[in-house]
Amino acid sequence: MLVIYLILGAVAGTLAGLLGVGGGLIIVPVLFEVFTQIGMESSVKMHMAIATSLATILLTSISSTYEHHRHQAVLWPVFWRLTPAILTGAVLGAVIVDYLTTSVLTVCFAAFELFVAYQMWFSIKPKTSRTLPGLSGMLSAGGVIGCISSMIGIGGGTLTVPFLLWCNQGIRKAVATSAACGFSIALASALAYGFLGNNESGVPEQSAGYIYLPAFISISIMSLLFAPFGAKLAHKLPIVMLKKIFAVLLLLLGLRMMMLAILIYI
After folding, report:
1. Which of 120, 174, 213, 236 has minimal Cβ neighbours within 10 Å of its Cβ?
2. pLDDT (0 to 100) of residue 25
3. pLDDT in tens, 141-169
4. Local confidence band at 234 (pLDDT 50, 70, 90 cut-offs)
């Protein structure tokens, strides 16, 4: 399966650089299929896919944030106001997932993926109707972003960017700040999933809690290598058309996951 992990990392890294979305929406369903093929316990394989996906975001978010910081695009004051609640929300999300069954998690992920596919196909963006909220509003937003992202296995870009755009922040700074927030989500989630899965029955060898290390290492390395390649392609390829293609891919993956969830339930 090492070849699959390497290819998956290359695809996820390229998409992250090309479209500005994390690879979690691709990594989670593919890992779920792979874990099924290698005979991983059905009670933990969705948990493992989500946790491993979040762990891979650690390295790619550092690389991405550094590049954005070099261009002075990261809104660091906004990042620091969101981060405490993001960390708390991410841990809470991991705790919630620990109590959910594979079938419920699969349905939740599939529904979110179908929502993102719809959003990308129709290029739905929030209207810039207000400024950034006060401390309580920022903490509420950070908590929701952290919790949902941790439960789905993503870096939060599909949630953080729309929130910042709604608060009248520029798209480039919104994407850059989202990348920095992705590190906070990945760090808190990875630590929480690593701890929660330690005593879980069915977790395979070569795992750190719910994080499957062979997949984590392989995907992370290739994502780091291919993210700059995707960023270069972004300046040469028609992004609007690529987003529609990606939306179709997410639609197919979402429907596949929903079907698998129904089969698990049956």
Report:
1. 236
2. 86
3. 999 999 999 999 988 888 888 899 888 88
4. low
Phi-psi region of 201 (alpha: psi -120 to 50; beta: other; left: phi over 0): beta
Rounded (10°) angle between helices 76-99 and 135-152: 40
The mean predicted confidence, pLDDT, of the chain is: 87
222-245 burial string, b = 16+ CB within 10 Å, else e?
Answer: bbbebbeebbeeeeeeeeeebbbe
Q: Whole-angstrom Cα distance, residue 91 to residue 21?
A: 22
Q: For residue range 80-133, what is the model confidence (pLDDT) as tens digits?
A: 999 999 999 999 999 999 999 988 999 999 999 899 888 888 877 776 667 888
Residues 6 or more apart whose CB falls under 8 angstroms from that of 207 comprise 48, 197, 213
Q: Which two three-digit tokens encode residue 210?
A: 């719910």
Token digits of residue 132:
């950034």
Greatest CA separation for the chain: 52
Beta bridge partners of 207: 212
- Report in angstroms the alpha-carbon separations of 170 from 75, 128, 185: 10, 10, 22
